[in-house]
Each structure stands twice: as structure tokens, then as C-alpha cells.
Amino acid sequence: MFNTDAKVFVAGHRGMVGSAIVRQLESKGYNNIVTRTRSELNLLSQADVHAFFESEGIGEVYLAAAKVGGIHANNEYPADFIYENLMIEANIIHAAHKNNVQKLLFLGSSCIYPKLAEQPMREDALLTGTLEPTNEPYAIAKIAGIKLCESYNRQYQRDYRCVMPTNLYGPHDNFHPENSHVIPALLRRFHEAVEQGVDTVTIWGSGKPMREFLHVDDMAAASIHVMNLDRDTYDANTQPMLSHINVGTGVDCTIRELAETIVKVTGFQGKLEFDATKPDGTPRKLMDVSRLKDLGWSYSISLEDGLKDAYHWFVENHTDARL
């Protein structure tokens, strides 16, 4: 199934997802992986991206490059989130098409679904309701990426596929105290609380929202699995639905339960408090992953084991991590 000789461009290879995809590709024997740093290729420049594709002869693309962040970052920098994500995906998808790249995988986000979507969220929930306001600009950009792929497939018979991951975590995550997602933010805070002997850690929100989490190595494995499915098999499982597939565990937990597991992983001995005056965000986000299971893939890393792995990576690399 795997064309290990294909020239594969992984956009965003230094990010959490992109680096995991590179690791997975290498483990499967891929020997012609192309990467570019931000200083080497400006993905916001249409001219630069087109010149890159024209010169490199790319065969497959994993589009993992994106501007990402948690509730605080999305609230503070909405223009940056919508502009940069729209430009990155439009430039890469169009350049891939213009240079006759037939296979591309676009990585989206579960925030594309309406705030009050029926749980678990099915692929056909897209565009059926109002988005969560705190990350609406980012979500709209990701929806546009799905529609770009779908439109190039319809008009030009391309094979551009989309996977919509649930909340991801793992090595190479962003551990900034304000601009990161919930798992890296909490791992860092509890780690520092242990180091400093702090008695109490306060967490935003009520602790009641339900969230689903997937280790990034599982996400990378799912991405490569979906990319290499026979086209008839993939099409049969995405039509008449929109051309995207959910990727997750199908299992969720409360933020309180997540925090209690992180307490266990980090060895924090103090008290947990929840600040209900802070926003909770979407009440529940759980993916319906039955379509992906029908395509022969399911997750393998439990939440506690994944958190241990992410925390180990942070402890070993936190001086160089994105803080």
C-alpha cells in the first residue's frame, strides 16, 4: 500500500503533528521526505510556495502547517488565526494542483463543528449550526481548507483528502503558559508547581466540560493510513458526506478528570481549584470515529500512557520547548 519511494512534502514538520508524521513515515521506510523551515520557505507567500513546488517535483503532500493555539490565543489574535491559516492552506493546495500533485492530505480540527453539535459529532454535522465564538476565525479557516480540497476533487479530479483530529497532545507541543492548549499548559503548570512547592493550582473554568484527547503519534499513524487507502475505499466512506474523516479515540473525559490524571503523572501533592468565572468553551467535544474504524484504524495509546510520554518529553526538552 505504501509508496516509500514517493517524494513526500511534510508542511509544518517542526510542529507537533508534522514532526510525528515525519517520524511515522521514516519508520515505514519512506526515504524521500522533503521539509522546509519557516526561514527556508514562507508558506504565506504564494509566489514562494509555487516556486518551491515547481522546483521540487513533489509527489505527495501532508499539510500539517498551521497557526494554532488555545482559547486565550484564539481570543486575543483572531485576525492572525484566520489570515495565516487561510493563506497557508490556499497557497499549498493550489500550488500542489498547479504542479500536478495528485495526492494531498489536509489536517483540520474538530472545532469545525457547531458549538452545540449532537454528540458524538458526525462528519455530516459540518455547517449545520453556529460555531464556538472563541475560535470561530480558526474554525472558518479550517472549513475553507476542507472546501478547497473538496472543490479541487470535484473540478479537477484530484485526490485531496481531509482528516479532522480531536484535541491532540504529545512531544513537540506548545507549552506556552497562555497561548497553549489545555494539556501542555497543565503539564507545565503542575511541573512548575512541584518544583516551586506550590500548594494550590487554579484551573480556568468549572472543570465540567468534556473533551476527547488523542496522542499525536496515533494521529500521525491515522493520517498515513488514510492517505494510503485505496481511492474507491476512501470515496465509499466519505460520500455522500463531505470529503473529510474524523480522527479520535471516541472516548472523552471531564477537564477535572484530565487534571486529576495530570496530577498523578506529575506527582503534584497540592490542591486543585477551578475558577468558574473563566470561560469553559464548548460544553462537550467528542468525535464519532465509526467511519475511520470501518476503514481499518483505531487508536492504540491510552490517555494516561500518552500523558506520561508527553510529560517525559517536556521534562527532557523543556529548556528548548516552545514556552
From TrEMBL:
Metal-binding listed as a keyword: no
Catalytic activity field: GDP-beta-L-fucose + NADP(+) = GDP-4-dehydro-alpha-D-rhamnose + NADPH + H(+)
Residues at the active site: Y138 (proton donor/acceptor)
Gene Ontology BP annotations: 'de novo' GDP-L-fucose biosynthetic process
Binding positions for NADP(+) per the UniProt entry: 12-18, 107-110, 142, 165-168, 181
InterPro entries reported for this sequence: Epimerase_deHydtase, GDP_fucose/colitose_synth, NAD(P)-bd_dom_sf
Domain of life the protein comes from: Bacteria
Family annotation (SUPFAM superfamilies): NAD(P)-binding Rossmann-fold domains
PANTHER family per record: GDP-L-FUCOSE SYNTHASE
Name of the molecule in the record: GDP-L-fucose synthase
Source organism: Hirschia baltica (strain ATCC 49814 / DSM 5838 / IFAM 1418)
